[in-house]
Design a protein that fits this description.
alpha+beta; Glucose Permease (Domain IIA); ten-stranded antiparallel beta sheet; two-stranded antiparallel ribbon; 12 strands
Length: about 325
Amino acid sequence: MERTLSAEERIRRAEEIYQRRKMQGGIRVPTSNVNTTVKVEYRMFKKLILQIAICLLIYFIFYLIKNSNYIFSEDVLNKTREFLSHDINFQNLYQQAEDYYHEHIKVFLAGNNENIQENQKQEQNNIQANEGTEENTQEQENNEQQNNIEASNEIVEGGIGGGEEGEKLLENETVVASAEEQADIQITETIPLSQMEIDANDIKNNYSMILPLRGTITSRFGPREATEIISANHAGIDIAVNAGTIFTAAMEGTVTFVSSEGGYGNHVYIEKDDVTTLYAHCQTIYVKEGDTITQGQQIGEVGETGNATGPHLHFEVRKSNRVVNPELILSFA
């Protein structure tokens, strides 16, 4: 049977439990060091000081109000009484505001609307005037065309009858046509020509040139798709025929250079003044440097020497060492 604890034992055991709970980190805190009354007294002291300060501030404010000559001066009190006694009539204020709106703001807005409407009317009038001008212009053009047709008919009738009126009209029509032709000529002359076109016109006007060979055109003058063999910019024109086909000199001149080196393979230069013709990829060349060549003379056979993908003649024209498109001079169709 369990032994009942006496009152003293219960008190002692409760004290032991309390002491164990006071332990912090294994160190026992003596009850004599725990001061709970100091904090309570400090908080009460702060509260008392704050209340005293508030009372002093309120007393100071009342003191200022009581002894101030400005806040409760006679002038301030009179103005306050006057303001409080003034009766504000809100209906009069609303009526005044409405009158101001009708007299000023509404008139201003109406004036702006009138200006906008006037501008719109002016724009419409301008559009109608432009349309009328275009119609008049079109009508004038139609009348001029009709007059020209009637004049042409009169010319024909007068020419058939041999009348003087028909001859005069014919002379007038001839003058008009001549003026138009001169205008066309002037317009054509104002278009600038390239250096190549100038060179081609000079060769056509001052020298005689014929086709060196007739065949299939496989590559024309100008840029083209480049490969390991074909260059990107073609300086002449390629005429494809069977290997061994004889070609002739396009123009007279002197043989200035014959070679088998480079991408042209076997090739020959014939020069007259500052115009040079070049014949390349030849199988055989009949002439040598220094020979005098006549136009149409046989000078070689077509081949595929050098950088060539098949038998053809590469024909090239130069003016002052500037390449010229042969198709600007000759027709290879």
